[in-house]
Amino acid sequence: MRDENTLDESQPFQGLDSPAPHRRSLLWGAAALGAAALAPSAAATASAAATPSAAPSPSAAAPSPAPAANANGRIDVHHHAIPPAAHQWMVDHGLLPPVGGPPWANWTAESSLAIMDETGVAASVLSGPAPSEFLTSLTPAQIAESTRVGNDALGQVISDHPTRFGFFAAAPVANVDVALTEIGYSLDTLHADGVVLSMHAGGQYLGDPAFDPILAELDRRHAVVFTHPYNLPGCSGAPVPDFLVDFLADTTRAAVKMLLAGVFDRYPNISFILPHGGGFFPLLASRLQLGSYLGVGVSQAVATRAIRRCWYDSAAPISPGATPSLLAAVGAEKLLFGSDFPASTADGARLNARAIDTDPVLSPGVRRQINRENARRLLPALAQRIGG
């Protein structure tokens, strides 16, 4: 008997107001914002160029300055958003009900700013929902359109609130042509702070040769790449909700695949952010050496170098249980603050902030690195906008 909290990817998507789905399954199912993954057959034919649309124009709304109390506050690199234009696209295509729906579907800049102010966040880097394998009913043209609508909508939020928000633009890995178009448009025209990629699409993980053109372009641009997991491909009926375990395993699979495929060496100019403390990847150096004895793995030294090359956010939350291991495996200089709001809810955002603030392992200097200074180094354009 299938767990009611697990979406059956073999069934057509019924809309986000269908009965009794799990909250996180719903959130990551709302992938029409622009990183929706296609099944392999669709990916093979996905060559539609992104639908042209105008770049966001400056809004008449007054920008929201960072409150004085937050002038030296946190920078949240893991913060999701569904701006009004993207929300309307989902409604128009039957992915959300016109009224109501789950709480996250009614996102506003004001809701983010409120929890940011409460938890001492000076600025958040926004990204749309992660991709969903069960939105394969979307055509390649719709994938292109939704990606552009979502990126333009996020760009408008940043135009309205330049000192409070940055954003990672969507680039659907299963549609290489659209991904390359959106990378150029978002970085050159919208001035995105980086790009968000899904861990896998159609059963293929980052590191698969199919995705090399995307990584090559991001490497050429010295881009920051925020990665985000989803349900493990081919798995259904899990005994626990996917976000508790499978998201971490998905991140781990992608990171190990990239390591074994030589991605970290072949594309040295990409700065990869692995969310939720990197899943299990930071703990696998010795395991990967064991794998090398069996023909699949690398030396502990090579694994350690790859682990220390990536960046990791705190949105597990990592504190207090995981911080000793992360500090030992990664070092304080590669840890970033992340809330995962609104997926984590306001209560989750408060928990994450409080966990960092009260973690007995973190010195004031390390806490400052995680909360702010590391993100300022990684995202200099955002740092310049917010000042401090």
Task: Summarize this structure as a short list of keywords or feature phrases.
eight-stranded parallel sheet; 10 strands; single chain; Amidohydrolase 2; 41% helix; 388 residues; alpha/beta; globular; TIM Barrel
Largest sheet composition: 8 strands, parallel
Strand content: 5-15%
Helicity, in percent? 40-55%
CATH architecture: Alpha-Beta Barrel
The total domain count is: 1
Q: If you average the pLDDT, what whole number results?
A: 82
Instruction: Give the overall shape.
Output: globular
Tell me the name of the CATH homologous superfamily: Metal-dependent hydrolases
Number of helices: 15
How is the CATH topology named?
A: TIM Barrel
For the record, the CATH class is Alpha Beta
Give me the strand/helix succession.
HHEHHEHEHEEEHEHHEHHEHEHHH
GO cellular component, one term: cytoplasm
GO biological process, one term: secondary metabolic process
InterPro entries: ACMSD, Amidohydro-rel, Metal_Hydrolase, TAT_signal
Protein name: Amidohydrolase 2
Description:
It is a single chain. The chain has helices spanning 23-29, 40-45, 84-92, 109-118, 140-160, 176-188, 212-220, 242-260, 263-266, 285-293, 300-309, 323-329, 345-358, 364-378, 380-386; strands at 74-80, 121-127, 165-170, 194-198, 200-201, 204-205, 224-228, 271-274, 311-313, 335-336. It is α/β, with parallel strands linked by helices and 388 residues long. The chain has a single domain, classed as TIM Barrel (Alpha-Beta Barrel), CATH 3.20.20. An eight-stranded parallel sheet has the order 1-2-3-4-7-8-9-10. Helix 12 links the parallel strand 9 (311-313) and strand 10. Helix 3 (84-92) packs antiparallel against helix 5. It is globular. Mean pLDDT is 82; it is low at 1-63.
